[in-house]
Every structure is written in C-alpha cells, then in structure tokens.
C-alpha cells in the first residue's frame, strides 16, 4: 500500500508539472478614459513582450515569478486626444547571469517631441537576487538609478518580494514589497505595498488581489499621491488559457468641487 501511495504521489506531481502553463508572448490592447468635471480624455494603447524562453505561471494565469531572468524584447504605443502619442521599445539580455538592457522612448505632444534612452547593466546573483544600474539620457541631461530585487521563498509558490531603487544623488528613492500565497483549491492572494520619495515629498500605495480560481480575480487599491486619495477596484477573467479581459475603475478628489474618474478595459493575450 505504501508503494502504491508513493507511485500515486509521483504521478500527481508529474501531472501538475506538465500541466503548468507556460508562455512566451504577452500582449495587451488597452482603452483608458479619464473624466474630470465636463472634461474627458481617451487613450488607446497596445503593447507586447516576447521572452526568448518560456515563463511559467504560478498558478493564476496572471501571476509570474517576482524576478524575471529571461531575455526579452518589448514595445508599446499609445495615442491620446490632443495630438499626443508615445512609443516605447526595449529589450533585456541575460548572459551568464549578467543583464544588459536598452530602452528608447519617444513622445509627441502637438508639434513638440521628446526623446529619452536608457541603458541597463545588472547581475543576477542567484535566481532570487538581482542588482542593476540604469542610466537615462534626456534632452536636458541624464541621470543614473540603482536598484535591487530580492525574493524570499516561503514554500511552494508562496513568496515575499522586495524592490528598492534610488537615483545617483539619493534625492529620489522608492521601495515596494509583494506577498503572494496559495490558499488551496485553486485560490490565491496577492498584496503589494509601495513607497516613493521625491526630495521628502512622499507618496505611497497599497493593493490586493484575490483569485477565486486560476482564471478569475478581483482587486482593490488605494494610493496617496500628492495628498490626493485615489481609490480603485479591478477585475480580470481568462475565458481561455490564452485570452482574458480586465477592467479597472479609479476615483480621486482633485479639488473641493471636482473629482476625477478613471476607466480602463483591456484585452489580454498570452501565448
């Protein structure tokens, strides 16, 4: 009987490994609308990331490992009312645990255009610890930032992740943490906390998502940005293993007389 139990356990483990979903291409078509009083603005965006090696999800189809160690290329484009558009392209190469990255962004506002480029150097000390440095060059000068990411595994897919970053003059810094855990019966929870400080002007935010299944989730968020309270609610559902729809609503009081409403809906494809 003991041998039979061992064999059954091995088969179950092997089956779960085989059935784990893996993806190389992540794409999103997104529509955003912001309403402030009688004013409104619509933004349409499209973006995709291609990984040269497949990435496995952590149960929920929307959750990947906290630290990425796969070489990739990505691009995004958005178009907004008022002759505003932006293009962003880049990529990351991991070779012998070294990270080399590059990114280019071009924004056009009416007849004006703005360009910036970023290069990244990093080192993956181990699968749970990444350090990196970025240098961003803009039309009016450049600046460097330094950052690190660390994952503390709690067993199974459960983990606590930490990220920190600062500029080269230590005037601007940020820190965030994420907790992810399985609750059994294909239910999961994810929670994040972030803090940023710009010359002693501090913003912070907290968010959480609850997964009813590996394919359906709802979430809440709160951000304190420039002394404005921003509340949000979101939901995401995968109709198949490859296609999902997500929706989000946020609200903030920007003045005593007006508040701002933010609506977003996205079509997501993973292959």
Tell me the number of helical segments per DSSP (H or I, 4 or more residues long).
Answer: 1
- Structural class by helix and strand composition: mainly beta
Q: Within the largest sheet, what's the order of strands?
A: 1-2-3-4-5-6-7-8-9-10-11-12-13-14-15-16
Average pLDDT, all residues: 91
Task: Describe the main β-sheet briefly.
Answer: 16 strands, antiparallel, barrel
H/E element sequence: HEEEEEEEEEEEEEEEE
Low-confidence stretches: 1-18
User: How many runs of DSSP E, i.e. beta strands?
Assistant: 16
Taking the alpha carbons of the first and last residues, their distance comes to 42 Å
What is the 3D shape? Answer: globular
* Rg computed from alpha carbons, rounded to a whole number of angstroms: 21 Å
Helix residue percentage: under 10%
**How much of the polypeptide forms β-strand, as a percent range?**
over 45%
